[in-house]
Write a structure and sequence with these properties.
The protein is α+β, with helices and mostly antiparallel strands. The protein has a domain at about 90-255: Thrombin, subunit H (Beta Barrel), CATH 2.40.10.340. It contains 4 helices and 12 strands. Strands 1-2-5-4-3-12 form a 6-stranded antiparallel barrel. The chain is elongated and about 90 Å long.
Length: about 260
């Protein structure tokens, strides 16, 4: 009780003001119906705008927080899924970093995106960029806080892939003239049909194994070579959240692979 009394003593002016304001508003309502109506309209308009304003702010920060939460939850899920999907013990060595795409642009006929993570966050050149839905591309340039990614829509990038239900492997290739993604180097005996799923093979350590890449659209022969047109699952212009995959042994593997005899 003493605490309650002490509380009101410290705020006597505020309590008095609120009390007198309430009395005056009540008298206005009782003595003049027209003024009461106007007051009600004014009060409703003000309170409505204030509620809308604060609700918008709350929704914005709530949505931002939820997006970050979902991205990190997705990251944990991806890490769990990576372990059983690999055949080799390199499976658990990928380091996944969540990031956001902040711009998407074309330059000299090539397709790029910029993300909000850089070397300060562990992002390195030649790291892979993907989501659980598909492959984005490969990091080609970094700064302390940002990184530039070349997407699959470039002739300078190839990804080691395979059919989801077959062991044969090949490489993606962007056909700039026809604006389509192709797969080459598959053996002729491979049996593929429109609708079949293509996934990463995981051999190059750009990307983890079994990440979705696209769906087969068409199979045809050109110059006696079987080619497969695929529709990528991931569209850069419709993507915001992304993972960057870095493997600590990639440089070592590349140096051995490209070493001169």
């Amino acid at each position: 009780m003493q605490k309650l009394i002490h509380f009101f003593e410290k705020r006597i002016l505020l309590v008095t003001y609120v009390f007198l304001l309430s009395v005056s508003m009540t008298l206005i309502r009782l003595t003049d119906s027209g003024s009461s109506y106007k007051f009600f309209v004014f009060q409703s308009a003000v309170s409505g705008q204030l509620n809308k304003f604060f609700s918008g702010i709350g929704s914005y920060f709530s949505l931002q927080s939820r997006n970050e939460e979902l991205l990190h939850e997705n990251l944990l899920l991806q890490k769990r899924l990576l372990r059983p999907s690999f055949i080799s013990p390199l499976s658990s060595s990928f380091q996944l970093t969540p990031a956001h795409i902040i711009s998407h642009f074309h330059d000299a006929g090539k397709d790029f995106v910029i993300i909000d993570k850089g070397t300060d966050d562990g992002i390195v050149k030649d790291a892979g960029a993907f989501t659980p839905k598909g492959i984005m591309g490969i990091v080609i340039q970094t700064s302390p806080h940002f990184a530039k990614i070349m997407t699959l829509r470039n002739e300078n990038i190839s990804v080691f892939v395979k059919p989801a239900d077959q062991p044969y492997t090949g490489f993606t290739f962007w056909d700039e003239a026809n604006k389509r993604l192709l797969i080459t180097d598959f053996p002729e005996k491979i049996n593929l049909h429109p609708g079949d799923t293509i996934i990463t093979a995981g051999n190059s350590l750009f990307f983890p194994r079994d990440i979705p890449v696209g769906r087969v659209q068409k199979v045809f022969f050109e110059n006696d070579e079987k080619k497969i047109v695929i529709e990528p699952f991931l569209q850069p212009e419709k993507t915001y959240n992304i993972f960057i995959s870095v493997h600590p042994l990639k440089k070592e593997l590349d140096s051995i692979t490209h070493a001169t005899q």
